[in-house]
Amino acid sequence: APAPAAAPPPPPPRRRRWYPTTPADLDTVAARTLQAGDDLSSDHPGFADAAYRSRRAAITAAAARYRWGDPLPVVAYAPAETATWTAVWAQLAALRAVGGGGSGGGAAAAAMGGAAAAAAAAAAARGRVVAPEYAAAVEGAVAEGVLSGDAIPQLGGVDAWLHDRTGWRVRPVGGLLSPRDFLNGLGAKVFHATQYIRHPSVPGYTPEPDVIHELLGHVPLLSIPAFAGLNETIGIASRGARDDAIERLARLYWFTVEFGLLWGDAAAGGAPYRAYGAGLLSSPGELARAVGLPAPPTAEGEDVREGASPPANPEPDRRPLTLEAVAEVVASSYPVTSFQRVYYVAQGLEGAADVVAAYARQVQAE
Ligand code: HBI
Ligand code: FE
């Protein structure tokens, strides 16, 4: 008699991949930084500077010891570190003020009240080359003593300020996280922030995130609800996502949160583009280039040897950020250690958030 057909093997148990969803969960991933300088070593301006490397290591050691609920590490910055912060702050403050009618523009408009105030504020904002919400957030943080050009802010004050506004938290980290770990953090409304500062030889540029990038680039934007929501949307879509989806979300993050532009008000004689990407808002040279301004003067003492700074490549492409364009975005690799070749331009922060949300829904339906 024929042997009975063997029963098919039972299906393997459906394993649900674990992923962090709360700030405390991030204790398991936050110490998993990619080898410091692995990708960056040959380009890193501090690579050959032993004192810089050991200072960076001391700061990142405290971040590695941090557990959720601990007081945020306080760094006693050296005068030379503060000087780097102050020099970059001054360059960025000048770009932030372009077209803004000076820092008093908004206050003068508010004093008028009503429609006149709205019209004056609109006129004052027309020439801005940064997102007006970003300029307002920085001005607010300065007024509250949370950010200042005179000292590198500590994470504790920044965290409390941010949490009051959007419920986001800041967590110290020792360097680059994998895209998956970093994006999972956003889903938990946690922003991982480095505390060391870029090498003083090239203050206008850093190949890895540093305290200027985190606190002056990212944090003010995360205090704006629509923009915090955009970050959280990408983060939630990353939960348990396949590796190729993580890669696509990381590219979407890069071309929006890091290097995004908004349409300005060229028709009314204003700036044609306004930056909202944190990579632009923390890099005076690339910010000026992205919005079509002349390069800011080189800081005193800056290393201007060939190769010390990113190459001054030609006029970049600027393309509208539409859901159709996102297909191109998520398929595009990008340079990390030079200026970008392409920027994507959105219709306001809400427009950017809408496009990101639409793509995130596609990823979650895969
Ligand atoms: N890690 N610490 C840290 N900071 C970032 O800004 C960061 C990161 N890892 C990946 C990343 N950013 C993004 O460029 C995307 O890959 C998600
Ligand atoms: Fe960043």
Structural description of this entry:
With 366 residues, the protein is of the alpha/beta class. The chain is 45% helix and 6% strand. It contains 14 helices and six strands. It has helices spanning 50-65, 79-97, 105-112, 114-125, 132-143, 155-166, 179-187, 211-222, 225-237, 243-258, 278-281, 284-291, 323-329, 348-365, and strands at residues 169-172, 190-193, 261-263, 273-275, 317-320, 342-346. The strands form two sheets. The chain has a four-stranded mixed beta sheet with strand order 4-3-6-5. Strands 1-2 form a two-stranded parallel sheet. α3 (105-112) runs antiparallel to α4 (114-125). It is globular, with a radius of gyration of 22 Å. Mean pLDDT is 86; it is low at 102-109 and 303-308. Fe (iii) ion binds next to α8.
